[in-house]
TrEMBL record, chains A, B:
Organism the protein comes from: Roseivirga spongicola
Gene3D superfamilies: Homeodomain-like (1.10.10.60), Tetracycline Repressor, domain 2 (1.10.357.10)
PANTHER family reported in the protein's UniProt record: ACREF/ENVCD OPERON REPRESSOR-RELATED, ACREF_ENVCD OPERON REPRESSOR-RELATED
Domain HTH tetR-type: 8-68
UniProt keyword list: DNA-binding
GO MF terms, alphabetically ordered: DNA binding
Name the record gives this protein: HTH tetR-type domain-containing protein
DNA-binding region: 31-50
PROSITE patterns linked: HTH_TETR_2
Source species, domain of life: Bacteria
Record carries keyword Calcium: no
Keyword Membrane set for record: no
Amino acid sequence: MKPTDGLTSRKQQILEQAAKLFRTRGFKGASLRQIAEKVGMEGPSLYNHIKSKHELLSILVMNNAREFNHRINEIHASSLSSLDKIDRVISLHIELTVVNPDAMSLMLSEWTHLEADERLEYVKLRDSYENQFKEILEQAMFEGDVVQMDVNFMLFMILSTLRSLYAWCARYKNYNRLEMEAYLKQGILKGILKKA
Amino acid sequence: MKPTDGLTSRKQQILEQAAKLFRTRGFKGASLRQIAEKVGMEGPSLYNHIKSKHELLSILVMNNAREFNHRINEIHASSLSSLDKIDRVISLHIELTVVNPDAMSLMLSEWTHLEADERLEYVKLRDSYENQFKEILEQAMFEGDVVQMDVNFMLFMILSTLRSLYAWCARYKNYNRLEMEAYLKQGILKGILKKA
DNA sequence: GTTAAAAACTAACCAATATTAGTTAATGTT
DNA sequence: AACATTAACTAATATTGGTTAGTTTTTAAC
């Protein structure tokens, strides 16, 4: 039986449980035996499906990172206005976070435990992502749509909010995505002060 | 020779190096031997100064958490206006982050590895902190100073930025604190959009 | 039904690590 | 100088955890 049964393949189950455990206990804190138990088998049996513990982390983190990079490339290269691009990037973050909060959480906090070569690739992807976002912000600033501010700091502020979103999703389950989008865009773009 | 020599006592050195290592490798990823090496002794010798590995984490995390809680209590109880209180809370975050970024980073990301009882206390402190901040925001909202929005979400947005600050400090070393304060307050309060 | 592959299990290995025990060197006090 | 305390060291223990080897059961194909 090849992985033709798609979604619920054994390896998928393992990846899902691994993601959950890596997220709650951390990569180092979660053991293969714990993962195996969650998926209903003995520890060493995992090796019929995976190559190593690191492979699990690698798949979870790198897939997400590549997806992210791919999607922002599209936005960056599009012919949208700068403000619309910013809007899309925010939506992108929300979408990927809502679809797979575990992978998102992992990508942002456990990437340090990737093996050397992949850690390098990850950093490259992340830097590329940040640079594209920065260019969009610079463009918007140049066109006079956003306020004058140190671009790096503005980028940091926006990303810190977007990157914390998975924690929010974990705490307040039944938030509707559109509501979150509305709040986020309002908060980031207009701040919290009431207009004088 | 009791710890009368203050700052540079052996235990302080150990705590400092432990903080750095816990931060970069994570609590589980950093070994006592590595800490010992950094401070110039063999692993087991650490036990002449500490009770356990967990004690190191405990001191680093809980001290910071208690300090945080203490300080926001003062602000919450003060007779300042709601907007001024918000202002002070932002300054508080910046101050504690700049003074001890390692402890801040640890408190926010490694608290999960505290032992059961202390983890409970930590969560209590954190919840109390968040509640006080929330009350301040509600008050400001009630008085019409800040925009109408789900308070929990607003709290989340502000905190996510403030709590990421240590990462910013790590990347861009020589940022002046006043500059950061100005940017942060502008960004949080007024957003990034230029007034129409 | 026989056979071959996939996927489970058990037992064992090996490395790392927190921790304990026991010992020795350094330090300071009387 | 003698003694007690502090703080270092080395050796050893117990546990955990990733991984391998070898074997048995389950599954699917002919």
